[in-house]
Amino acid sequence: MRKPLYSIAVTLAVMLAIVSLASADPWKNSLDLGLNLTQNSYSNNWTGGEAGSIAWVSLANGIFEKQVSPKFNFKNTSKLQFGQTHTQDEATKDWKKPIKSTDKIDIENVGRLTLQAWVDPYVAFRIESQFLDASHEPVKRLFNPILLTESAGIAKTIFAREKDLVSTRLGFSFRENIMRLIGPAAIDTINENLTTESSTDGGFESVTDAQYRLADNISYIGKLTLFKALFFSKADDFKGTPAEDYWKAVDVNLENGLSVAISKYISLNLYTQLLYDKQVDLAGRFKETFALGVTYKML
Q: pTM of the entire structure?
């Protein structure tokens, strides 16, 4: 099933590029680059059990939108994050190997027919992954796993005013989850012996985006994604087990981001994410990042 996904995505990208170049309308771009750093260290003769640490997180958040023609709008939303934590040994004060603390790749393209009707038809393609899969230390797997999502349906802008926007869309979504698994020969070695496994599912998807300028220096961006599967390619593998119907549960992905600009280049950022996928964990998973660091607005 992977070839159709890639071929449709590539075809859509080429078509958008050609039409984009043919249009004279300018892009509406927003790109924020950030680096957050926390550091402390101790000499070898320091007593008391303290250990030094260095924690850093880099991020890039971008929104690129173009009204390609009076009846077609294209929007790309990209979120990239990566960070590590370095710690000292409490006794020797030697620095240990860094541990990954943050890792996120989320790129979504949405093409919308702006027909000036009550709702607009849309098509979307989204890729979600991470830069480094460090779940098994000897083997470093880049960009693993990968979740590809294609969807089509109807979209509606609920509220729009200057830099404030609330929009929602509802459609049918087709997903493919691609994962490179470690073979037995790679368990205790650094040599990669990987096999690729993929699964597909399809169902209804609801996506709601919100962005608000709460003050001149305070902004909020939120996203709620709901997915209800109607079929799952590996459903037969779970028949007769307690997890037989887990794939039928609604998946939830709620993201909230609050940014406070203290000065031109210094900002405080709070990001939270709530994930619920019954096939992964029976309880919801929560992530929170609070950081003060340097932010540079390129666009």
A: 0.85
